[in-house]
Amino acid sequence: MTDRNANHPGYKKTKVGWIPEEWDVTKLASTSKIIMGQSPNSEFYNEVGEGLPLIQGMSDIKDGKTQPRYWTTQITKECHPDDIILSVRAPVGNVARSIHHGCIGRGVCVVRSKKSSDFIFQLLKYMEPVWARYSQGSTFEAVVSKDVKQFPVPNPPYPEQKRIAEILNTWDRAIEQTRQLIDAKQRLKKGLMQQLLTGRMRFPGFGAPVEKAGELPEGWEEKTLGDMGTFSKGANIQKSDLVDEGIPCIRYGEIYTVHDFILKEFKSYISSSTAMSSKRIYKGDILFAGSGETREEIGKCIAYVDEYEAYAGGDVIIFRSNESNPYYLGYLLNHPLIIKQKSALGQGYSIFHIYPNMLKKLIIHLPPRNEQKMIVHVISTLDNEILRLVKLTKFLNLQKLGLLQKLLSGEVRV
Questions:
Q1: 309, CA 20 to 30 Å: which among 89, 128, 165, 370?
Q2: What angle do CA 339, 287, 386 make, to 5 degrees?
Q3: Domain 156-215+368-414 is of which CATH architecture?
Q4: pLDDT score, position 1
Q5: Burial of 6 (0-12, 13-18, 19+ CB in 10 A)
Q6: Which among 247, 257, 251, 254 has a CA at the least distance from the CA of 238?
Q7: What's the predicted TM-score (pTM) here?
Q8: Are the beta carbons of 311 and 275 closer than 8 angstroms?
Q9: Interatomic CA distance for residues 406 and 398, integer angstroms
């Protein structure tokens, strides 16, 4: 597991690495009851919440907790709230907590601790990478009951187990509370965007709010996007053109997977020779994805608000206007009322496409520039708070990873 304590006084070499002399090594089955999953017959699956939740594999896990997609009326192997769920099929070794009384399928097993559930959970989180060698040589990546039961784990004295778990649980609570705060801020942001971008909520001195979304607020203009600027297309950036360091670029798929409303940092780079055959973007440009897998996501867009030299790849549609705040357009053009228009304009079946001549038809309600600025200030403030909390979550996770390595190898004693 680790050699970080190799040959240090007070440590011994074992099958799980160098650990403190006071610690033992034992089989997982000695610390916990192991219950291998058994899937019910498919005709007993349902999606309406009848029966018990069914945990089939890691696809039913989110943020380290069970989140089932199906339920079953055929009761097979069961899990209880607070059980440890261990994946036994690809990816092997991932760990989560059950928050349900439910059934477990063949992709997972229950590890029900006999004495120190929190410690065993943290220990298995730490040892996730070790499981890979247990599944090598299989037709597909999986481990069997014998592998799980005989899996070797370090076994500190119980008081030390308890204290280690308390320390690590403190970080888990901080991470969970930060995630909950992020969720709350995102809900607040979504609600404010719904109100502010439609004129249903307005600042003092700017006119009366409208009764329902879709009405034209006092002092706002109704325009088509084609009336406000010009369109062009990105060009000539393939995956094979990307380099580790170079000139920033944006590819259409990244508009879906990486960015949200505003392009805040680049993830891809190209050489200067590739840039010569591509299309440069400038501060204030709105970048639309020209293709998507569903009607609802077609035409998702982001605003580019920096001065850096950067380029857009093929299937990126570039809209350029001096009439409106680019931050405002980045938020507005992803509003549900505009998404509904874009989905109606998109063409295709398995893959949907949208083109500049379609985007020109989008009808938007545009407030005066000073009202746009105030709306942007409110939404951007929440955006920045969410970004700060996301960074805090990453920092806490890195801290926890360091603590896991030091406490569960015995490098640092409590």
A1: 370
A2: 75
A3: Orthogonal Bundle (1.10)
A4: 57
A5: exposed
A6: 251
A7: 0.83
A8: yes
A9: 13
